[in-house]
Amino acid sequence: MRRRRLPLLSSADGRETDDPEARKQLDTLEKRSYKTYRARQSACNRLGKRARAWNCALVALATSTTVASIGLLTDADLYGENGEALMVCVAVLSLVASLATTNMDYSGRSRDFFLNYRKIQRISVEMEEFGRQRDNPVTAEAVKALSISYQAILDETENHTPGDHLRHFSKAHSPADPYYTTDKSLIRRRRGAVAADFGITSFPYLTLALPLGLLVPLVNRLIP
Asked: Is residue 2 one of the residues assigned to a domain?
């Protein structure tokens, strides 16, 4: 069944003209898609950073555990009376961290967000170009089709976090930027979201203290 074409507005000379309400809806949809694109771009970057951070931490932990185990074979008292129990605990901790990060799938989710935000970026540009064209009138039917495409792309991946959305709101942006705001409450929320994400992303690097702690006694024994 063919969809019924919505009537177009016509000028005095019979030429088709824009539907003012449809153009308003197109502008709103364009701004919304642009903000979604920026938010999901942030999500892609955030998850990518966490994937690299945890990979670095796990490689460091696995390497130090292996080296420390070799040192323990040559010197049973390297880590005190409970050295063997300590190494077992560290090995279990390393396994749990590895399974947890595998389950979180930071790399895969980052890739999904990359593909998704590129699609949203393309449709946002399409909306912008469509709004600039004067040969093709903006109709309610055309805007509805773009909206359906936009909603379908949104459903292809998980949603971004409030932190990803708030990260771009700042006084530093130009008033022409869709993210420009002078709302102090919004700016405080943005700073809090950025700080929380920074803390979570930086946590794997803090765990590097454990591999370092395993290597220090071994280095001390090796140095005459």
From this structure: no
